[in-house]
Structures are given as structure tokens and as C-alpha cells.
Design goal:
This protein has 257 residues and is α/β, with parallel strands linked by helices. The chain has helices at residues 17-22, 41-45, 60-68, 87-97, 172-192, 199-216, 224-252; strands spanning 4-10, 29-34, 52-54, 75-80, 83-85, 108-110, 113-117, 120-121, 133-137, 141-144, 150-153, 157-159, 164-169. A 7-stranded mixed sheet has the order 3-2-1-4-9-6-12. The longest helix is centred in the last third of the chain and has 29 residues, at 224-252. The chain is globular, with a radius of gyration of 20 Å. The termini are far apart.
């Protein structure tokens, strides 16, 4: 049987991390990388593992790479504190781990994400199409990206079919809090890369984002949730570019150095 470490990045996740940890108690190792929690996150985590480490926040990818550097197993499953491994996914992973270590068919696996959005799991829009790489051989991959970080590796990638359950957006307020944080990071990265935008193009792109979520990807079939999420994703697109536009405006008019 090959071995598995679960890595979890966290900060002030006392309300979420118990369910996350409970869903992976079957793993050989659990590593928690905390970036300075002021609540009970670390105390809770230490009930499940002695591998709870502080790492100053320098970005999502850096936090995951730090956690990966501490594992001693064959494979790594990367989670956020507001995610949980479904029973079906646990069984699927354990079947994969039961294969011989000499089986080098795949270096990593994509896993679907099932999102809980302020009261229910959504089944339409872009959300069910998320299949990030989350399970991979230790030492063969590196995380990159300021936000919505992704894994970079060489070798064949397979697919698992049971989901990670994601409980990040339990309320619209929490969604908006993340929207503000993520749009800030993305706009800053675009600004550093020298990208510019016209507000008319930003508005047109937001309209396309809404229609894509609500019509093309059938978000309307999720009822009120689908309508709200389509509007929020269009807002995400527009706000990111509005912030980018404002950075250039301030620089061009001598308001920042």
C-alpha cells in the first residue's frame, strides 16, 4: 500500500477545519500550514496531527509548496480548510494507493470540486466543471500562481470521479469578502505585467461572463442561486478590471510612484 499525506493551508478556520480533518483521518499523515491564526485553528489541528507549522503568508502557491516540503509519504492530497473528502473519493483514492509503487502510469490526478453555495450544492454554471489537480506524487510538482494557484508537473495526469466537497461560500457576504480579496490580487498581478484595459471592454466582458454562466452553462437551472452566482461572477470580472484601470489612472495622473 502506498502512503498518502494530506496538506491543508489555513488561517482562522476554526469553524471549518474540524470537518476537513475528520474527513481525512484515514490518511497516513496530515500536515497543516497555518499563516498566523488568532482563533482555535491550530489547537484544533493538533488534536489530529503533530505536524502543525507556522509559515508567514507570502501567497497561496508558496504556502502549498511549504506544506509539500514537510511530507514524508509517496503521495500528497492538497486541501483547503473549508474542503472535505467525500466517502466516495476516499474509497477511490485508497484503491489507487493499493496499486504497486512501481506503477508509474500517472504522476497526478484531477479531482472534481462540488461547491456549496449559500444553502445548497450547485449543479450548473462553471462550478461543476472544476477539475483541478489535487492528488500527486510527492516531489514531482510545484505550485505556482498568486491566486487560483495551479500545480505544474511533468508526466501523465489521470482523473478521479468522486468530488471534494467545498464549503467556502456559505453566505453571500463571505463570497463578496473573497471576491474583494481575489480581485485585488489579480488586478495587482495584471498591473505588474503591464496589462491595460478599457472600461467599455471590461463591461462587455462582464456581460459575456453573465451570459456564459447563466445561459450557455445553464446556471438558470439552479434557480435563484444560479442567477445570483451569474451576477456575482460578472461582477468579479468587471471589478478586477476596474481595479486595474484605477491603478493605471492613478499612475498616469501622478498619484502613485
Amino acid at each position: 500500500m502506498q502512503t498518502l499525506a494530506v496538506t491543508i493551508i489555513a488561517k482562522n478556520e476554526a469553524d471549518n477545519i474540524v470537518e476537513c480533518l475528520e474527513s481525512v483521518t484515514w490518511a497516513n499523515e496530515i500536515v497543516v500550514a497555518d499563516s498566523g491564526s488568532t482563533d482555535e485553528t491550530c489547537a484544533i489541528a493538533r488534536r489530529y496531527t503533530d505536524k502543525v507549522f507556522f509559515h508567514e503568508w507570502t501567497g497561496y502557491a508558496d504556502q502549498r509548496n511549504f506544506a509539500d516540503s514537510l511530507v514524508t509519504t509517496d503521495w500528497i492530497l492538497a486541501l483547503d480548510a473549508d474542503e472535505r473528502v467525500s466517502e466516495a473519493l476516499r474509497n477511490e483514492i485508497q484503491r489507487m494507493l493499493s496499486k504497486s509503487a512501481n506503477d508509474q502510469t500517472f504522476q497526478a490526478f484531477r479531482i472534481p470540486i462540488k461547491d456549496w453555495m449559500f444553502g445548497k450544492f450547485v449543479n450548473y454554471g462553471s462550478w461543476p466543471h472544476q477539475r483541478p489537480i489535487r492528488l500527486y506524487r510527492a516531489g514531482c510538482a510545484t505550485w505556482r500562481g498568486a491566486v487560483h494557484e495551479s500545480l505544474h508537473l511533468r508526466g501523465a495526469i489521470g482523473d478521479l470521479y468522486s468530488p471534494i466537497l467545498h464549503y467556502s461560500h456559505t453566505s453571500i457576504r463571505k463570497f463578496l469578502d473573497k471576491l474583494n480579496t481575489y480581485t485585488e490580487i489579480e488586478a495587482e498581478e495584471m498591473f505588474k505585467a503591464g496589462r491595460r484595459v478599457r472600461l467599455s471592454h471590461a463591461l462587455a466582458g462582464a456581460l459575456r461572463a453573465f451570459l456564459g454562466q447563466y445561459v450557455r452553462l445553464q446556471g438558470f437551472r439552479d434557480g435563484g442561486h444560479g442567477l445570483i452566482l451569474a451576477i456575482l461572477m460578472a461582477t468579479y470580472y468587471f471589478i478586477t478590471r476596474a481595479k486595474l484601470w484605477s491603478y493605471w489612472y492613478l499612475q498616469d495622473h501622478g498619484k502613485v510612484s
